[in-house]
Known about the structure:
With 573 residues, this protein is an alpha+beta fold. It is built from 10 helices and 27 strands. The strands form 8 sheets. The protein has a 7-stranded parallel beta sheet, sandwiched between helices. Strands 22, 23, 25, 26 and 27 form a 5-stranded antiparallel beta sheet that branches. Strand 8, helix 5 (161-170) and strand 9 form a beta-alpha-beta unit. Helix 8 (319-336) packs across helix 9. The longest helix is centred in the middle third of the chain and has 18 residues, at 319-336. It is elongated and about 110 Å long. It starts with 15 loop residues before the first strand and ends with a strand. The model is unreliable at 1-23 and 440-482 (pLDDT under 50).
Amino acid sequence: MRLPALAAIATAASLLVPVPAFADEIIVRREPGLDAAQRADVRADAGARLVQRLTLPDTEVVRVPAGQTDEALSSLEADPRVVYAESDAATWREAAVDPIAQPDLSLIRAQDAWSFSTGTGVTVGLVDSGVTFSHEDLAGQWSSTGMDYVDGGTPDDVKGHGTHVAGTIAAIRDNGVGIAGIAPSVKVLPVRVLDANGNGTPSVIAQGFNYAGDQGVKIVNASLGGPSSTTVENSITSHPNTLFVVAAGNNNGANDDTTPFEPCSMSAANVLCVGATDNNDAVASFSNIGPTSVDLFAPGVSLSSTCLGTPAYCTMSGTSMATPHVTAVAALLLAYKPNATVAQLKQAILQGAKPVAALAGKSVTGGRLDALGALGAIGAPIDPDGDGLSGKADNCPSVANPDQLDTDRDGLGDACDPDDDNDGVADVSDAYPLDATRSALSLPSDPQPAPAPAPAPAPTTTTTTPTATTKKTATTTATTTTQVRSTRTTRYRGMTALSFEAASASDVLVTVRPRGKKAAVARLTVHAQDGANRVVLRRRDGRALARGRYVVTLVSIVDGRRASAVTVPVTVR
């Protein structure tokens, strides 16, 4: 934490703060030039005796009988020979720092962000296993007693998961115990939807989301997920003014684009999905990924936070632990800019993310959370990357880019943009990253199959990712005659989708343009399997296509070679 410099009373390691205490000593600053007899006379008039002459000019400490401090102060203050007099009763101690190390705070530059915002005035919804209301590092951090959809009554945590998440967001800062939350001034609205085993049904979870949204909470943390559920989806989409920050899942690198894990895999604009990084800023071994479903990553390995029972603090790992980092930063942004929309909060977090080579192609941003970068993106007058540009003037606030190059003119500078030419192919996989007319892809040796129809809702939704399905190994080919065929439009989870047949496994580049216009509103790459495939048509920001007529172009690519384009007219009603 950066502390303001206070001359004479601060050191580099600590800031001294006064606390009330009994005292019978008084500091007296005299007018200059008094001789010994005059100084003695001043003390005698106040009924005081000398204790110590200070090294400060004309200043001494005197003592008066117990209980006579106020009377003596009045006498001294009325004496024209006295410049001032004040009680020396206060004792000064180090501002209590939080003793448990939190390297994740430094990594995401949370302490630097506190100079601009600590989350004051913001309430965050916590839909989880409940909380420990009496925890020493969380007491008083609640907006209300919240709601329990598992057992009724008070949402007390009997699992420990929600308490750990709550601490990452809102643990009290500088109170001498435990840790500091990333947004230590926020209030938390606890909503219990997970039982003692960490499980919850779709109906219970949907009610929890609905309750938090109905309370007007603008940010909700949901460190949970599971199979597809229309009920859960509806509870999120029916609250478009609430940002749901959700976990990517812990299925050992499963791709949420192709193996849906909801709410992460939802295409709703008010969902922000978070994967986990390890201590080396690489994807954590357990974390799911998703080039179009996972938005960014945050620290998620061996994180210290508040815990249920004894000891009061412990470490946990998971995308559940990464998610509250992003939730807390969203709260910092909202406190800094209270009128910010959900779209603005999400965009600032994504734009402010720090690009990391090991994360390229694994999420929408290919980056890791950066609190200071996000504040710069929301408009804070700071220059987090030191390139001479601050606030919204910087199109990539987490990486120095004084030239502000933006090849595709999408508002996200090339230094931060994972797809500089906006052709739907991530730069890490694009042989021509600055040329939207050419994209050479190499087919993975074990490509992910295209999404299958959504499975029926399971009886429970858990905080751990379902067992991954076995990948289907596709046969690769170098022919340029691979074609997309038998196209038709369908509906998938309330959005327009395009079903098509592929002659063999291939990458298919999909471009969506409004009819009569050259500019594309969406470009994406589908790793198609041999046979039936389906792709949801949505804008680059994840929102559904607006009503109207479009032209969709599909080009199959194998080993960098393109087949003939197939053009399909699509009407969105």
